[in-house]
């Protein structure tokens, strides 16, 4: 059996929209017929895992058959968060082994910080997806800029973490492994801003230096927040599944998801989005 594709959603800063990005990628893949397993390493909050629990409950209550991912059991998240690193890593390895046996794609959502679990997940990645807001506060995790000129000085802590993950894969697998790293601009305001143009220039310079691609993320839209409590995304909306009123903004949101999946190289997820548009 072929090894599953492992996608890690990573950024050591909270509030960048990792879980929002994760649930949209997963639902896009599920509607494309892919077998997906999810592992939520944000042990205390577990937003992604709770989203899919809400999804199952909403679908059952409303008589809909919605695709769901496989969720290996890592036990009580809050209790595990208090356990030592050895126990946490053992639980992760067991969950990862279950996911490997059950899925074609494993998506791992990581916490907003440098933890042993996050490092272990990054070391397994085939693809790392890093969301960031259009802010130099977020960019600071990727690269340091000169406070006077705003010119790029050097890679920062998260770029170094990805470098370590790439090195780990190369050492453990005995060969040069390419981890595809894509940084997506997430939660953008609709209006353009001079700050964003400055940021994009530094992003492109850093991308060449440390080896990531820049891709489109998801804007800050009301529809994403409206659908979250139901365990739904814009990929689920249809004539039958419509818990909120649909507008042209929702069509634009679906196109955003389509562009994201295309940037990640997940072309097989495009047909269901196109058919439902």
UniProtKB/TrEMBL annotation:
Name the record gives this protein: Chromosome partitioning protein
SUPFAM superfamilies assigned: P-loop containing nucleoside triphosphate hydrolases
Spans through the membrane: none
Entries under InterPro entries matching the protein: DNA_Partitioning_ATPase, MipZ, P-loop_NTPase
UniProt cross-references to Pfam families, sorted A to Z: MipZ
PANTHER family: COBQ_COBB_MIND_PARA NUCLEOTIDE BINDING DOMAIN-CONTAINING PROTEIN, P-LOOP CONTAINING NUCLEOSIDE TRIPHOSPHATE HYDROLASE
